[in-house]
Amino acid sequence: MVLAGAGVARADVKIGVFGPMTGDAAGYGQSLREMVELIVKEQNAAGGVLGQKIVPIYGDDAGKPEQAVSSMPL
User: Fold this and answer.
1) For residues 18 and 64, is the Cβ–Cβ distance under 8 A?
2) Rounded to an integer, what distance in angstroms lies between the CA atom of residue 30 and that of residue 36?
3) Model's pTM, two decimal places?
4) Angstrom distances, CA of residue 66 to CA of 18, 55, 62
5) What pLDDT is recorded for position 9?
6) What are the Cα distances from residue 25, in Å, to 16, 17, 28, 30, 60?
């Protein structure tokens, strides 16, 4: 029974987070990033999501709506 989970591929759960990481509103983006990091740290310490680690992926929209669409890497 010890090897019941062996060989099962587990992928990290990736979440996209975007906001104004640079520009005039960068302070809001920094607060957002700190909040996300705290929540992810606590949730991962509690076992993640369905046993998988959460990994945030950050995108920078610089506080510009026209840039928000393309701020997340694929």
Assistant:
1) no
2) 10
3) 0.76
4) 13, 26, 10
5) 61
6) 19, 15, 6, 9, 11
